[in-house]
Amino acid sequence: MIVTTAQGQLEGIERNGVWQFRGVPYAAPPVGERRFRPPAPPEPWEGVRPADRFGPRAWQATGGAMALLGDQGGETSEDCLFLNVVTPGCDDRRRPVLVWIHGGGFVNGSSSTPWYDGSRMAARGDVVVVSVNYRLGALGFLWLGDLDERYRSSGVNGLLDQAAALRWVEQNIAAFGGDPGNVTIFGESAGAMSVSTLLALPAARGLFHRAIAQSGAASNTFEPKVASEITSAMMSRLSVTELEGLLAAAPADLVAAGGKVTGELFHDPGRIAGPTGIALAMAFQPVVDGEWLPCGPLDAVREGTAADVGLLTGTNRDEWNLFRLMSPSGLDHPELLERLDRVFGEGHRIHDAYAAARPGATPDDLWSAVLTDATFRIPTTRLVEARVEGGASSPTHQYLFTWASPAFGGVAGSCHALEIPFVFGVLGNQGAELFLGGHAGEELWALSDAMQDAWIAFARTGDPNHPGIPDWPAWSPDERPVLRFDVERSLEHDPAGAERRLWDGVL
Questions:
Q1: Strand order in the sheet with 210-214
Q2: CA distances from 474 to 43, 191, 464, 479 (A)
Q3: Ramachandran bin of 331, using left for φ above 0, alpha for ψ from -120 to 50, beta for the remaining angles
Q4: Considering only CA atoms, which of 417, 452, 404, 412 is closest in space to residue 71?
Q5: Which of 104, 116, 119, 108 is nearest to 57 (CA)?
Q6: For 330-390, what is the HEC assignment?
Q7: ∠426-444-463 over CA atoms, to 5°?
Q8: Other residues' Cβ atoms within 10 Å of the Cβ of residue 356
Q9: What's the alpha-carbon Rg for the chain, to the nearest Å?
Q10: Which residues pair with 14 in a beta bridge?
Q11: Where along the chain do its domains lie?
């Protein structure tokens, strides 16, 4: 199949009953003089360009959580601004378009991860699925505006890449059978944080019409003052004293320095952020510079920005269990109380509330539950509440994923990222069986269908309701309806409301 885009012709491949176009450049290579600068328009090519393999991923470290998600690594390059299109047909059907923004803490991940294969979603829902690479770590989010005004965009270049991909979609997706007037962005973790921040990014305005944020909200940004501390730490690690040193640094050295700075934050996290930032200790986050990102995304939503964009958002019950798998355990109660006091200043009150709701829970269990809420559930709740404050004209729907995996001795539970293979319908793909604790049976495939159909319905009409789930009303502050996704689907009102109220005035 050959398709003509604004830049030239692409030849895709047929897989699993759909057409795939891989490694499509959506912006010029951000290299040389373009390093740390906003993305430039894509360059045209002559003849027919093969689109049968994924483009290089952004520079990043290997292993860690992404390996658990079935990520196999692959070529890394500064020339990484590629996307992939999966479509049932390159015709004039004008299908809804879903654009996936991957997670990975703004330092890892790529659109080629097997969990992000959009084939089943495209075929089941008759939709077009696009997945996007963007610049990560220092190359995508290191703040240089204090060193040179010409690099004022540097703290949000990764987001500007995502906006450039959406501009490419607007200009070209009709040739792939998609509707440029019906575009939904969706993402998980840092991808969801990106989705939420794109609501406030002027460069993305009008380029998407609905948004889905899975386990990530609008609370993960830096002010320039904090971002400057990260920049100073990076320069110290690289043994450079001027901007020119950063411009000339090897990508591998930037990644290594970023990893060391992140490690330092784990030992002294309080110097960069409040409790949400402390938990994740992410050295690279979008920077609210006042121009490219005029204000914090949560503030922007409260002021009515993107009020006409429908939102579907939610979290997993045991988000922090994923990170618990990768860190030492064995807390005792005095250590737990000390941590809670140090991070939140509310040690005994938080401990007692969570312990009362979880008889027999270990200190590690309680720490995981607290960080799940502080880092993911409460920021998501704040985003949903901000939509109401901002007078959103499009509805908001909230979910909670509670299916608990037996993997890793049951420690995984309903952990961070576990919902992804259910949304994409890839329960049999590489890495999924490890996370699911074995082969997926009929109940899990039914759960996947229920989630996928909700996502597709939302992308099509802005309403996630379909015959396979209970009635799912739009969120309101009085009822706080949340759809629980598990082997049995149910509607709940303000689940764990007592613990939610505990955070008022803390987060």
A1: 13-15, 18-25, 82-87, 128-132, 95-101, 178-188, 210-214, 310-316, 396-401, 481-485, 490-493
A2: 43, 23, 10, 10
A3: beta
A4: 417
A5: 108
A6: CCCHHHHHHHHHHHHCCHHHHHHHHHHHCCCCCHHHHHHHHHHHHHHHHHHHHHHHHHHHC
A7: 80
A8: 11
A9: 22
A10: 19
A11: 313-330+374-502
Phi, psi of 481 (to 5 degrees): -75, 135
417-444 confidence digits (pLDDT tens): 999 999 999 998 877 888 999 888 999 9
pTM of whole model > 0.85? yes
Active site residues: 189, 319, 416
Reduce the DSSP state of residue 24 to 3 states and report it.
strand
CB atoms inside a 10 Å sphere around CB 121: 25
Q: What is the pLDDT along the chain (507 residues), one digit of tens a residue?
A: 999 999 999 999 999 899 999 999 999 999 999 999 999 999 999 999 999 999 999 999 876 666 666 666 689 999 999 999 999 999 999 999 999 999 999 999 999 999 999 999 999 999 999 999 999 999 999 999 999 999 999 999 999 999 999 999 999 999 999 999 999 999 999 999 999 999 999 999 999 999 999 999 999 999 999 999 999 999 999 999 999 999 999 999 999 999 999 888 876 655 565 544 444 678 999 999 999 999 999 999 999 999 999 999 999 999 999 998 887 778 898 999 998 988 888 788 999 999 999 999 999 999 999 999 999 999 999 999 999 999 999 999 999 999 999 999 999 999 999 999 999 999 988 778 889 998 889 999 999 999 999 999 999 999 999 999 999 999 999 999 999 999 999 999 999 999 999 998 777
Look at the block and give the residue holding tokens 């600068």. Answer: 37
Judge contact between 10 and 49, C-beta under 8 A. Answer: yes
- Nearest alpha-carbon partner for 7 in 81, 69, 62: 81
Name, in order, each residue with C-beta under 8 angstroms of 14's C-beta and a sequence gap of 6 or more. 1, 20
Q: How many CB atoms lie within 10 A of CB 437?
A: 15
- Whose tokens are 């030239």? That residue is 8
DSSP codes of every residue in 194-247: HHHHHTT-GGGTTS-SEEEEES--S---B-HHHHHHHHHHHHHHHT--SHHHHH
**8 Ramachandran zone, left/alpha/beta (phi>0; psi -120 to 50):** left
CB of 142 within 8 A of CB of 238?
no
How many Å apart are CA 372 and CA 494, to the nearest integer?
16
Residue type, 117: D
The alpha carbon of 225 is separated from its chain's Cα centroid by a whole number of angstroms, namely 25
Q: How far is CA 502 from CA 107, 273, 325, 385, 498, in A?
A: 32, 20, 27, 16, 6
The H-assigned helical ranges of 17-174 are 65-68, 119-125, 137-141, 157-172
Tokens standing for 286? 């979008």
Contact 504, 497 (CB under 8 A): no
Rounded to whole angstroms, the Cα distance separating 473 from 398 reads 9
Number of Cα atoms under 13 Å in the Cβ half of residue 236: 9
Residues 374 and 367: their CA atoms lie apart, in Å, by 10
